[in-house]
Specification:
With 78 residues, the protein is mainly α. The chain has helices at residues 2-11, 16-41, 45-54, 65-69.
């Protein structure tokens, strides 16, 4: 994305030094933000944070507890 912006600026006639400085500054800003997020959330932490928002806070179970521990009997064929 950054490279496309630099190419677009260059093709529209903006000075070469402005294009280069924009590319270097925006690229280093992007790298800095990525390292900052990695330091805050750790490896795979941002994915864990996003996944946590998709999980329900608690599960609703409407069956009696006794039914959880009993096995169903199979129907006998005649």
């Amino acid at each position: 994305m950054m490279l496309l912006m630099v190419v677009f600026l260059y093709l529209t006639g903006v000075d070469q030094w402005i294009c280069l400085s924009f590319g270097i500054l925006s690229g280093s800003l992007l790298v800095w933000v990525i390292f900052r997020l990695n330091a805050r959330y750790g490896e795979h932490g941002l994915m864990k944070l996003l996944a946590e928002k998709r999980h329900p806070r608690y599960l609703i179970h409407r069956k009696r507890v006794f039914r959880l521990f009993t096995r169903r009997r199979k129907k006998q064929q005649s």
